Structure prediction request, 387 residues.
Amino acid sequence: MTLEEKVRKTLAELGATDAQSVETLFAEVRAAMEAERQDLVSRGATSEAERNQLCKALRDRWLARKSGLVSLIDENWLKKAGKELKPTVGRRFNELREHSAGVEVDALLRAVPVSLEVHVSDPMHRTDSVAAEVSPAVALTDLTLPGYRRPLGSIHPVTRVMREIEDIFLNLGFAIETGPEVESVYYNFDALNIPESHPARDDWDTLYVDAQTVLRTHTSPVQIRAMEKHGAPLYIIIPGKCYRHDNPDSTHSPMFHQIEGLAIDTDITFADLKGTLDFFAKKFFGEKVRTSFHPSFFPFTEPSGEVAISCVFCDGQGCRICKESGWIEVMGCGMVHPEVLRHGGLDPDRYSGWAFGLGVERYAMMKYDINDIQLFYQSDVRFLEQF
Ligand SMILES: [Zn+2]
Prediction:
């Protein structure tokens, strides 16, 4: 009886009624698998195409999902084994499966040599690669050893939150715009209506490359760049890294991420701003969340405001995190200052717009209940693998 015939019968039909005969059967299967593999390795192939084909054929014979020998053994021997034999069959079957990594195509390809003559006469192949392919060291690699386990990575919580926020605005018809992190003082400050005397321009707040160049302190310079590039109407969000002269502590980092939004069109009013940001807050934090707007000051918006949401931890009742106020501030916003529109080359009598800016790390900290911003940058796998 051939191996193919045997794996199509149950153990009972094969007369294997005790552990000893099961062991014998599995030993036979493993020997056959190893012999076929060894045979292919020692025979080699005359071209890479042939090698591919041979390796694939051997793999399919043993490992094809439906009709491969290993699947048939699973189906007919293991699943149909009686209670007393099941532990033995299960153990031997698992060994066989581990052993069968030796007939995986990748492993075989490394082991099966392609004969030299064909390569030398083939002008497409350089001789040095031939030498590598027929190296005996490679051919002798023990393919029955377990492979290296490479753990799968996951998406960093800051990136994850950034994408989530981006998606909400992309669905509203906004486009993503990006710009340089090393920025001119003009785009970072002057064009945004931040005058020479403003404290934000101080060395204590800002990382200067030279007198005219800074690491951008916010993503807002891209507002001007986008206006210059696209004109109006303009509906964009601007995600990216920003830099400030801050000492790292649990809520500060010299590098952090912002997302900024900008909508410019004719007849844009503060009501559009409130409606959009309220929609965003409910999408991100949950439908139950309420928003509240209160006046603030930014040089590049007029009027300016801060947006607070009802505390997501206590439902607005007051707790430690919202400092008993029931509200948490989540972003700054306002109507784009006419000077800023002018710097972007737009006529403030014709166009108006709103803008907002938020810190991505803060959102990630709220979302995942993280109490130290530094955790995001330490690349500690124990932290990162929780996401
Ligand atoms: Zn609270």
Summary: The chain has two domains: 3-139, 157-384.
